[in-house]
UniProtKB/TrEMBL annotation:
4Fe-4S ferredoxin-type domain residues: 1-29, 31-61
One Pfam short name: Fer4_10
The protein's name: 4Fe-4S ferredoxin-type domain-containing protein
UniProt-listed InterPro entries: 4Fe4S_Fe-S-bd, 4Fe4S_Fe_S_CS
Transmembrane segments: none
Length: 139
């Protein structure tokens, strides 16, 4: 069965996404994400392989051990306020950025903005550049 290290888990759901037997379940509300690991007897090892934090291990099945569950508070997007990621996930991404980018405040800022807002900001920027170019070449 699967053993989770709560000190390492990021709440990223990679394990849940690859589990072929739906043994790892997401319970999500507006501001909290809970990951629930059922007691698995399959031992296919996919979740262990795909965990980016090495938080999972295969251990011998034990009837007495309860199922595992970890809850994470979701971090709010700095633009729209919607809650979109766990703090450990964001900290992991920030820690993996190249040193130059970490010194760049705007580079770090992107990580604290949800993907929808990032797309909107990029689209707005691109549209602004197109308009500027049209003005430049218009007679
Ligand atoms: S070992 Fe395989 S079946 Fe069991 S929880 Fe992990 S991915 Fe799912
Ligand atoms: S893949 Fe690893 S870090 Fe991500 S939720 Fe599963 S156990 Fe946690």
């Amino acid at each position: 069965m699967i053993k989770v290290d709560p000190g390492k888990c990021l709440g990223c759901l990679s394990c849940s996404n690859v589990c072929p037997n739906q043994n790892i379940v997401l319970l999500q509300s507006a501001d909290t994400r809970t990951v629930h690991w059922k007691k698995c007897k399959e031992e296919c090892d996919l979740c262990v392989e795909f965990c980016p934090a090495k938080a999972l291990a295969l251990v011998a099945y034990d009837e007495l051990v309860p199922e595992s569950e970890i809850s994470f508070e979701l971090v709010a997007c700095r633009v729209c306020g919607s809650r979109y990621a766990t703090l450990p996930m964001l900290m992991k991404v920030e820690a993996s950025l190249p040193a130059g980018m970490q010194e760049d405040a705007s580079g770090l800022e992107w990580i604290r903005i949800c993907s929808q807002c990032r797309r909107d900001i990029e689209a707005e920027k691109a549209a602004g550049q197109v308009m500027k170019e049209r003005k430049r070449i218009s007679p």
